[in-house]
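Thread: CFAP74 fourth Ig-like domain-containing protein, structure

OP (GT): Posting the sequence first so everyone is looking at the same thing. Length is 182 residues per the record. Can we get the structure tokens written out before standup tomorrow? I want them in the notebook alongside the other entries.
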Amino acid sequence: FIEVQPNDGFGTLLPQETLEIDLIFGPKKAKEYNFQLCCKSGINRDFLLSCQGVGVRPPLVLSHSLVQFRPTAVGDKSPAIIYLTNQHTDCNQSKEPTTQLTKDVMKVDGPRLFCFCLPKDSEISISPSAGRLLPGERCLVQVMFRPRLLDHEIKEEALRQIHCAKLISEKEQEINRPTEQE
């Protein structure tokens, strides 16, 4: 549940040198974590680093994190289906969220809002792109891929084709020149 970067924590540190490392916390379970990392030097000195972290269950979960579309022709469309689920279960089934403070961790049970943000001019569309899920509720989300060619891409390809044709005709002329001279 912990990753040290760069180089998995291995490296060389010269005198008066500082090295910045990243500790990446990725818990597998929803619980409190207290642990120590040990940094060992080449001369068998140990430096202990105390760490604390809290793993929480994400309130909204996607059915899968990778969407693969079939090969799709320009101008055609390719759909994919994923599900978004609010994993929290609300005991009192009220529509108002209840907030609990559990060991310094804010936990909110209740409806969850979601919104998918796509890059500008994306070839992907998502429906519904925003909404609200009650505890235990699941929502079907349709992801649509519509590849298209932009005007500047068409112009760039046309210029490339013209340039290639010009190079080919120049090479043919060079090849034909010695024959004409003979």
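GT: Both are above now. Quick notes for whoever picks this up: The helical segments are 151-181. Residues 90 and 135 are 6 Å apart (CA to CA).
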